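Q: Give me the 3D complex with alpha-D-glucopyranose.
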Amino acid sequence: MERLTSPPRLMIVSDLDHTMVDHHDPENLSLLRFNSLWEHAYRHDSLLVFSTGRSPTLYKELRKEKPLLTPDITIMSVGTEITYGNSMVPDHGWVDTLNHKWDLGVVKEETGKFSELTLQAETEQRPHKVSFYVDKSKAQDVTKELSLRLEKRGLDVKIIYSGGMDLDILPQGAGKGQALAYLLKKLKSEGRLPLNTLACGDSGNDAELFSIPDVYGVMVSNAQEELLKWHAENAKDNPKVIHAKERCAGGIIQAVGEFKLGPNLSPRDVSDFLECRVENVNPGHEVVKFFLFYERWRRGEVENSEAYIASLKASCHPGGVFVHPSGAEKSLVDTIDELRKYHGDKQGKKFRVWVDQVLATETNHGTWNVKFDKWEQSGDEHRGCTTTVKFTAKEGEGLVWERVEQTWSEESELKKDDSSWII
Ligand code: GLC
Ligand code: MG
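A: Here is the predicted complex, encoded as structure tokens.
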């Protein structure tokens, strides 16, 4: 977050399951569309926040399964745990405020008396969150009775029903909404209040996000009954909250457009994006476009045309070097030439490419370093390389690729097969 010295242009605070992530889309298309939009147009001056009900354990599992970007801030366990940056540094200040009228032992003791409640997995039981499954037909009665009993024991809790099955008990001051309010206050005190904030969700635990003042909200088209009911009863007349027509991340992109929060055309929705021009010279855009081209080339979705190869070669410095993650060095131009033989080699296969945390810095006037992680999914395997590209801006010629250097990313868990990694 420290990389932003001025207020972020946009802060997106999004739930994951069935909001950012569409579990009914094995191709992850709407998520990939969101990813390239974010890296193309927002990463450099905006903040991405994930706010999930998942514990850190299940959150990390999801990251391995789905092509999720790395957020700037991660809010987990239904707003009870806030962490910052790649290394996920916990916000201890937030945790301290959650102990007010909260006693884990008492919550466990009282809930143990309800046969309707089935305890969730051990990983989902957290210091300020106790979670169960409960049948839809019993949820309301159990919630009422449990609130009374816990109040009698001197506690002040919040009971949230989500997804037609999950029941979470949290301190009254916790929850996704309170965590967002805390974050906004903190950013404001640092002089970095976002110009716009968009909250995105699909289920009961997201409702609070839509009641934070001055925050835009989108309930994705596939939102759960309990959230739509909450909206009808509490926020029907708030023009800042919409029910999108599109599912999951598609609904988020739709909301960015409807609320006019900034660009909403994902590079993935542009078929001839090599032609797509942007007003400001931002080498980050080049990177997003190139790797999208690379995916389409190998999937055989772009024409096998010499014109493409020629145009790519024209944007490489003749003496440009590519350092492969194996350490081998070769010429950039030769690397592009070799792409010819890979046209369509992934046709009909599960093959996707995405870039994460694309950040460009101008080192000298007209010289840029762009650092990012490039990920590749082939079948069920994910591999990633930390990549640095050096560009120079040449009068009238646009950006020239000078050097590309890759090293295997630490998170890349799979066996590092150097030979099948092209770039
Ligand atoms: C996630 C959590 C679960 C919680 C649910 C609803 O699925 O893993 O513990 O009950 O979100 O908040
Ligand atoms: Mg959800």
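A quick observation: Residues 136-152 form the longest helix (17 residues).
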